[in-house]
Specification:
Chain lengths: ~650, ~290
């Protein structure tokens, strides 16, 4: 838990409210003992119109004698000032102080861009090993052939530190050296870890064998794991996975070893300290490959712990652990609750996906848990269990106001296997009292009499609950629900239209687009695309003039997906006052030269979302880095847009 | 209630015509020239609710504001009278029960189903009346009865779905029918209200349908009988002709169209056959 000093708090508030604070004062604030105040000063300095005039004073603060906090804060401002600071930062590389040059190199690495790249390439030849290593490592973030060539030149340096920096940069760049030049580094204890990492870039039997060899020995196994960090999961063949598993199992503590690597991120978060060391993401990724190879269900929880950094991979490995992995998660008790959010999400998804009759008793035990989320996961999983033993607990949950919604949805799932029993359970509960979730579930399971009764109910929530299933009675009943005076009912009926055949839906689509309710119109727009109703493009076109932005965005999206968006329409809507509409138009029109031109102009828009969307378009379609893009790179202050601009420039550079 | 210092909103002829055109385009409903004073009074309340101080501003609002369409509905709701009651126009109903329904039942049909449409149902009195009358006919038992009741007014439909009525709506309902078809809903100082019993209520489905909306009408099934009583009086001649054409299309061959007593098809449509029954003159789509 962060502790906030009350005097800090007062000082922070007074600075925050002082809008007339001068540049000099803000520069002074960079050395404040409170990190919050330093952060505030960074934000204020970056936003200042005269920010570029501050480069020199900021560079003067990089000297270590001023203290680490001030130096880091000044560097942060320089990073954020971007390319406007590059030339003056590069000029300071002539300094005779190596530690200062190293710091400048790191700043140039963060800023990026062609001029920074050139300065860094020059700095790789610095007389000081620390500086040249830092320059090489920084170049690893530049996806250009020139940077790659500059890095490769240092692979056979006589300084091990430079070799390590080179290998790390190559790993970062995804650029594999020749096996011949890499092999010696695998034997060298100093370069081994980084060399194995790069080895993973080479998808070849030889490299997997070499990695397996490393995994078999306690002193090299961690390096071996790094060798797996860049290996693509999908490309590994079953025999290769078996070979890896056998190798790592030669160590009696194989499972503990993999668990430790997988949970490093988890442990770091558990310490609840912002300053805690960043976990070794590469090790974790390699450990996930090993977990897949070992196929040990007891690793399930640890695999979930790796999800914050590697969500997709963790989900994939967990899937390979199947029902046994789900059982491990279920029996792990409160440890599941201590997982970070992403880990919990992966675990929950796995439990629902792999639910089976074998898990029912453990799932039922969860229903008494105090944690609401676990109870809902258990209910959803019970619905997917295909077991008759899930009936009774679900029925009990239908009687509880806190769980009725989830239980009713779960009943629909279980009803695919036990329709009569579930219908009976729902009817019994409906006899006690109606609830929209009960009506919806019973309707989805085809309780015709109930749908009929609900559709004529006085209360719109019950009519809405049944409307989506009205087609089960007749097409006429669904039509009728589309005429209901309640928008809630019409929305539900409109969703029901999406389940009709083309012949049935066709005549209804104009009705949806003409509805008074905007959400119904939006569903209608989706339906037009689903049924490929090209004849309604004219109606969609009229909807692009709607006063409701959600309708405009939906109709535009549909027109574009039908391949009927004209450049004129895209251009017009790219200048729509609503940023969502404008963004949709820009992205949908990314292939049109007119939109690319407009995107260049929109880089100076006052709305950051538009600047971000425009950057995205340029990244996708621009043929060269235009002066507007260069200027935007210099002036942009919004972190999201800065990121998009950098990506755009990188993508364009790769193309040209 | 209007506060004393609030100035009276006056509707000029031009404002009346502008608003009349907007409402007509949206719903076909035509404000009668001789009822301008009624429009002035009722729409003044709407304008004040929206904080508008003239009918010109109100016209601008309904035409150009994003919520203009919703306001048009509110306005039409305020302008159209919802006056109706159970078992209204008994001669026509008797004709329906004694002549039309038996005639329809005698027609060859694929399924035992009788479908009716109460177009412009207002608060549902007519639709429920039909449901009740059919329940009294032994020959109809075994038939599936489907009654669609539609109106343009959401408020009227809300009332209709609730199916609770004051004694004023029941002024033509006999004590026997009151006992058979209704149950007591509330009784107290604010008056007595009766609720339509569920058996008769459930056979009626409601919908908000704009009769001039072709795409809406095209989704309706074909009916054996359409009741469109005292509705066309709110439309101009052109709209009436279009509407009658659409009603014709929505009738099964041999199906009947029942209009209000003061309404006729002279100079409006030649597609229907006029049929003089014992109790009434009705219109029929030829078989």
């Amino acid at each position: 838990m962060l502790e906030v000093d009350s005097t800090d708090d007062a000082r922070y508030l007074s600075i925050e409210q002082d809008v007339s604070r001068t540049s000099e004062q803000l520069l002074g604030d960079l050395s404040d003992e409170s990190w919050r105040i330093r952060r505030l000063a960074i934000e204020r300095l970056v936003e200042r119109p005269d920010a570029t005039d501050l480069v020199e004073p900021l560079l003067n603060k990089l000297n270590l004698r001023h203290g680490t906090a001030l130096r880091n804060a000044a560097a942060s401002v320089l990073d954020r000032l971007g390319t406007s600071a590059v030339d003056r930062v590069s000029a300071r590389l002539a300094s005779n102080k190596a530690d200062e040059r190293k710091f400048l190199v790191e700043i140039l690495g963060h800023i990026g861009g062609q001029r920074a790249e050139q300065a860094l390439i020059a700095a790789t030849g610095d007389s000081d090993v620390n500086v040249s290593s830092a320059a090489i490592e920084a170049l690893g973030n530049f996806s250009s052939p020139e940077a790659a060539r500059a890095i490769h030149r240092h692979l056979n340096s006589r300084f091990p530190m430079v070799c390590v920096a080179t290998l790390e940069a190559l790993a970062q760049l995804g650029s594999a050296p020749s096996l011949q030049s890499l092999w010696p580094h695998l034997e060298n204890p100093y370069t081994r870890r980084s060399a194995f990492k790069v080895l993973g870039l080479v998808q070849h039997t030889t490299t997997i064998c070499r990695t397996a060899q490393a995994l078999a020995k306690r002193e090299t196994r961690e390096a071996g794991v790094l060798g797996l960090s860049l290996v693509s999961h999908e490309k590994l063949l079953a025999p290769q996975l078996v070979s890896l598993a056998h190798s790592v199992r030669k160590n009696p503590d194989a499972i503990d070893f993999v668990t430790r690597l997988l949970t490093s991120d988890f442990s770091a978060q558990q310490s609840a300290s912002l300053e805690s060391a960043k976990p070794d993401s590469a090790l974790q990724r390699g450990a996930l490959v090993l977990a897949q190879a070992l196929a040990a269900p007891e690793l399930a929880l640890a695999v979930c712990a790796a999800a914050p950094a590697h969500e997709a991979e963790a989900a994939q490995v967990l899937a390979s652990l199947g029902e046994a992995g789900a059982m491990t998660l279920l029996t792990s008790g409160d440890a599941l609750l201590e997982l970070p959010n992403a880990g919990r999400a992966v675990a929950h998804e796995h439990l629902i996906r792999w639910s089976s009759p074998a898990l029912v008793s453990s799932l039922v035990a969860w229903l008494d848990h105090g944690d609401e989320e676990l109870v809902h996961i258990a209910l959803t999983s019970l619905g997917r269990s295909r077991s008759s033993e899930a009936l009774a607990p679900l029925q009990a949950a239908l009687g509880d106001a806190r769980t009725i919604e989830t239980a009713a949805s779960a009943c629909v799932e279980l009803g695919l296997y036990f329709r009569i029993e579930i219908q009976a359970a729902l009817s019994k509960q409906l006899d006690v009292g109606w609830h929209p979730a009960l009506v919806r579930a019973a309707a989805q399971l085809g309780n015709i009499a109930l749908i009929q009764e609900a559709l004529s109910h006085r209360d719109e929530v019950f009519r809405a609950a049944a409307a989506e299933s009205a087609r089960l009675i007749s097409l006429e009943a669904l039509h009728s629900a589309l005429f209901d005076e309640s928008a809630l009912v019409r929305r539900s009926a409109a969703r029901g239209v999406l389940q009709l055949s083309l012949e049935e839906a066709g005549p209804i689509l104009p009705r949806l687009l003409a509805d008074l309710d905007n959400p119904v119109k939006v569903i209608g727009c989706r339906a037009v695309v689903q049924y490929r109703a090209e004849s309604l493009v004219g109606t969609l076109d009229r909807l692009t003039k709607s006063s409701d932005a959600s309708v405009v965005a939906a109709s535009l999206q549909s027109i574009a997906e039908l391949g009927s968006a004209t450049v004129e329409l895209l251009l017009e809507l790219a200048q729509h006052p609503d940023p969502t509409v404008a963004k949709t138009a820009l992205v949908m029109g990314a292939a049109a030269s007119e939109i690319v031109e407009l995107s260049e102009r929109l880089l100076s828009s006052t709305q950051w979302e538009l600047r971000a969307a425009a950057s995205e378009v340029l990244g996708l379609s621009a043929s060269q880095v235009s002066p507007q893009l260069e200027i935007a790179c210099q002036l942009e202050r919004h972190p999201v847009v800065i990121e998009r601009l950098r990506t755009a420039r990188r993508l364009i550079s790769l193309r040209t | 209630m209007k506060s004393p210092e609030e100035p009276q909103l006056v509707m000029s002829n031009e404002e009346f015509h502008l608003l009349r055109d907007v409402f007509e385009r949206a719903s076909g409903f035509v404000m009668q020239e001789n009822l301008q004073f009624v429009a002035e009074r009722r729409l003044a309340a709407r304008a004040r609710t929206l904080g508008l101080n003239s009918f010109s501003a109100y016209h601008h609002y309904v035409r150009f504001d994003p919520h203009g369409s919703a306001e048009i509905n509110e306005a039409i709701d305020a302008l159209i009278p919802h006056e109706t009651y159970f078992f209204r126009e008994p001669h026509q109903l008797e004709c329906f029960v004694k002549e039309i329904v038996p005639g329809l039942l005698a027609l060859p049909r694929f399924e035992p189903r009788l479908s009716l449409w109460s177009a412009g149902c207002s608060t549902g009195d007519e639709a429920y009346t039909l449901s009740m009358l059919l329940s009294e006919l032994p020959d109809v038992h075994g038939f599936e009865i489907d009654i669609l009741a539609s109106d343009l007014s959401s408020k009227a439909l809300l009332h209709a779905r609730k199916a609770e009525y004051s004694l004023a709506s029941l002024r033509s309902t006999s004590p026997e029918r009151l006992a058979s078809f209704f149950e007591l809903a509330t009784s107290g100082p604010t008056g007595t209200r009766y609720r339509v019993k569920d058996t008769f209520r459930k056979r009626v489905r409601f919908g908000r349908i704009n009769l001039v909306d072709a795409s809406a009408l095209s989704l309706l099934p074909r009916f054996d009988v359409i009741f469109c009583r005292n509705v066309m009086i709110y439309f101009d001649v052109g709209t009436r002709k279009v509407l009658l054409d659409r009603m014709y299309d929505r009738l099964k061959p041999g199906g009947f169209l029942l209009l209000g007593h003061s309404e006729h098809l002279l100079s409006l449509s030649t597609r229907f056959s006029a049929v003089q029954l014992e109790n009434d003159l009705v219109y029929r789509r030829p078989e």
